[in-house]
Each structure stands twice: as C-alpha cells, then as structure tokens.
Amino acid sequence: MTAKWEKTEANVGVLEVEVPSDRFAEALDYAFKRVVKRVNVPGFRKGRVPRKVFEMRFGVEALYQDAVEYLLPRAYDEAVQETGIEPVAQPDVDVVQVESGKPFIFKATVTVKPEVVLGPYKGVEVEDKAFEVTDELLEEELTNIRKAHAELQVLEDGEVEQGDLVNIDFRGTVDGEPFEGGEAENYQLEIGSGVFIKGFEEQLIGMKPAEERDITVTFPGDYHVKALAGKEAVFHVVLHDMKRKVLRDLDDEFVQEISDFQTVDEFVADVRKRLEERMQQDHQRYLEDQVVEKVAANATIDIPSVMIDHEIDHQLGHFAEQLSMQQIPLDGYLEFTGQTRDELREQFREAAERRVRTSLVLEAIAEQEGLTATDEEVKAEVAKMAESAGVEQERVEQILSLRDPGLSGLRNDLTTRKTVSFLVENSVRK
Fold it and tell me: Which domains does the chain possess?
C-alpha cells in the first residue's frame, strides 16, 4: 500500500491512498461471504450460492460497497500511521477507483492537529500573593462548621431575618399576566441564599407567619428567559412558617459529638491545619492559572474549528449530565430558558477555545521538554485512587482500563500536571 500526504491549507490536506489489487480481492472475498447470506437464488440454498453463479447473476459490482466498507477504514488507519499525520476529525473520503483486478484508490480530505509555535514559556512573570490563614478566616470556618450542625427552631411569631428558612407560596405576574415558572406552593427558601433574583429575598425580611405581601422586582437585562429579561414583575407571597438556625456553643461536648477530638483546642488546631493545607493548594492553583494563561497567550496557533466544536460537544454533554442529576432534561432546560441548542452551544465557545488552546500548548511544551508520566507515576496515582476509594489497586486498574485501555488518558493527565508544575517552577514571581 502507498500513501501520499499533501497539505492544501493550514490544517487541511489530502491523503491519497492506493491499495494493491490483491488486498482489494481479499476485501471482495470478505464481502461475498457477507452478501451471499442475504441473497436467494433459485436452485441453491440460502448462503450456498457459488461465487461464479453470484457474479453471473448480480455482477461483481454488487460486492463493491461491502468491500469498500471493510477495506477503506483499515487502509485509512494504515495510511495515517505511515504518513505520521494526526487527524482531529473524520475525513471526507472520495473513492477514485474501485474495480475488480485493479488497485483500490481513494482520497481523504483530512483536518489535522495544528502546528503550535511556542512563545516564551520559561521565566514567565507571575504576580504572587499571600494565601494565609488569618484569625478572621479561622473564625469564619468555625462558624460554618457550627452552622452545618445547627438546629432548626420553628418560630411561632417574630419576623423573618437573614439566614432564616421560610416556607412560602408565591405567584408572579408581568404586566398583570402570570408566566411560566413564576408560581409555587410550600417552597422552602433560605433568606440570603441568592436563589431568587435580586431584591426578592430581601423584601421577605420583616414578614410574619401567615402574612401576605406583594413584592416588586425587575429581572436582569441578561436574564436567561428572554421574554422576562428587563421586565418588572410582581410576586404575591404568602408566608406559612419560618425556621431559624440555632448555633451550638463551641465547647468540648460539641467537639466530641462531631469529631474524634476531645477538646476545643485540639479541634481548632486541626481546623487551622486543614485550612493551611487548603491555602497551599489554592496558592498553587493561583500560580498555575496565571502561568498557563500567559504561556498559552504567548503561543501562535491556528485552531481548526472542528476541534473547538468537539470541545463544545464535550462540555455540552457534561452540562446535560449535571442537569440530568437534577432530574432536568436538556430539552426541558432549553424550553424553560427560551434558548435554542445553537445559542446554548455559543455560550460554551469561548471557554472551549481556551481549553483547546491550553491543551495544545501544554502538549507542545511537554514534547519540547521531554516531559512524560512514567509507569511508576501512573501506578502511584492508581494506588492513591485505590486508597482514597478504599478499594484494591487491581480492582481500580480494571475499572479504569474498561474506559481507558492502557491507561493512556490517565498518563496524559499526569503528563499535563507535570508540565504545569514545570512551568510554575520555571516562572518568575513578582
């Protein structure tokens, strides 16, 4: 087999492939074995028609489609390997010659991975800043822990305050007309959660149980439901009841109930330690984000649109999964928000392009610097995953291998992490 690659545009070229006639003959044999099972010829049992009889009755051309479907993808994969190109999308194939006794010839128009012209990536300046565990941060974390273990007290009287959990009915109208999604009964809402549009929750403060109140709010100009964007709405609200979080005192008894520690001092020391570890991780991510953004911006790449579209597909699929976990179908979400699928896709475009650019640049740097995850590092990562999940390492490897044969995806992830760490280590902090 011979393959010839010729670039016609920046990231597009034509791959011309010629497969010898003997291999095409083998493909015809394969096609005949498949097709003969489906034909009926008087005087012969189904599947028992001799090849010569078949070709006399139907012609050898009747085998071409099955032969091409069998041979073409295999020949294409071999040609890709032979020429060393890296396709990023399915090719557009044009069959040039398909005839018994002659070579099989086809041309494939292929979009390939773009060339990355790296800019400066060593000595990149990043602005550093301190990530410290202050007394205020520690106190905030301790308060959050107390809130997580707070007791809810039903209030028979009094007024709604920030942080209260209220049970309400509401019915919204715009220009006197109700709108979809603007009505609910026995809705549980935490005041200050920011779930509702700005101004709604704030106007519930001061209400008393059994009280009714009209609340006027204005939808943001960029509200996801186009028909409501920028419109003024009136909500009639009925407050059924309210509950208030009662925080426990931070004492030894409380600490012993929620942790393995015996005293407040031990517990607070552990909280501080975990906060310090989190600050270290946040600091590292802060540096990584800066240096990766700058290094990616320094590179020159003509990214094929198909790569961005594929990344949008990936992000959209992930978004649909998240919706599904909330029992919301994607089509239902689109109907509720008044968007088309294409409009939703456009919302992902900028982030998708940024991810593709970053991935290509990091891959190019890894190749330039000879960075790759070793077998030992891959095994260590699997062991860490197994320990975290409380599962045998061999079992984790089996599960990962089902969706990632050879653990190539995990190796690539580790290589990317190593490359990012390399960039941070070789950056200059201001």
Answer: 2-113 (3.30.70.1050), 151-246 (3.10.50.40), 264-429 (1.10.3120.10)
